[in-house]
Design a protein that fits this description.
Elements: H1 2-18, H2 28-39, H3 44-58, H4 64-78, H5 82-95, H6 100-112, H7 116-129, H8 134-146, H9 150-163
Helix pairs in contact: 2-3, 4-5, 5-6, 6-7, 6-8, 7-8, 8-9
TPR repeats: 100-133
Keywords: Repeat, Signal, TPR repeat
Pfam family, one: TPR_19
Length: 181
């Protein structure tokens, strides 16, 4: 009996945390196709176009209020107003705790601010929601490098490059013997 009482409680707790934010759009089928395309892209220019399509999907927030928060955060980020960007992205993450891009963009602001320790929890949350988010994976690899955790960074970077072999960060991969690729 206790098991059955716990499940409704957990479901209602999750809904309360989301505070009205709907589930993010489901782009899995489109992303599956884009990941397949990028694997066989003939050159960097074609791959960049495919990657841009992925970013368009990731940057599509669940609803109008969350899109406004994301857009305001990105505008602030573009002009270097990290405090305002962080404020908007904090609101977004509070409103839509199941939207990966909110965490990813907040991590990016923290990375640019040099707060590397705060970056990793956000990227881990983004990757829990969207494990194939190559932006979050490369961000995590770069953050681990900044924290002098090179072995971990290389493993994460290899995961990202396996998804998108055209990432510019692939130049940071090191052969196990220590020679650059």
């Amino acid at each position: 009996m206790r098991f059955f009482l716990t499940i409704p409680f957990l479901v209602s707790a999750q809904l309360a945390v989301a505070d009205g934010c709907p589930v993010a759009p489901d782009h899995e089928a489109t992303l599956d196709s884009l990941y397949a395309e990028i694997q066989t892209a003939p050159n960097q220019m074609v791959a960049r176009g495919i990657s841009n399509q992925m970013w368009e999907l990731w940057l599509e927030a669940p609803d109008e209020p969350s899109q406004m928060m994301l857009d305001a955060g990105l505008r602030a980020l573009r002009v270097g107003d990290y405090l305002r960007a962080l404020d908007q992205l904090n609101k977004l993450v509070s409103y839509c705790p199941f939207y990966a891009e909110g965490y990813n963009q907040r991590a990016f602001v923290r990375y640019l601010s040099g707060d590397f320790e705060a970056v990793l929890p956000d990227l881990d949350q983004a990757l829990d929601i969207n494990p194939r988010h190559t932006g979050a994976l490369t961000g995590k690899a770069l953050t681990l490098m900044a924290l002098d955790r090179g072995d971990e960074a290389q493993a994460v970077l290899r995961d990202a490059v396996a998804l998108n072999p055209w990432l510019s960060e692939r130049a940071l991969l090191i052969e196990p013997e220590g020679d650059p690729l």
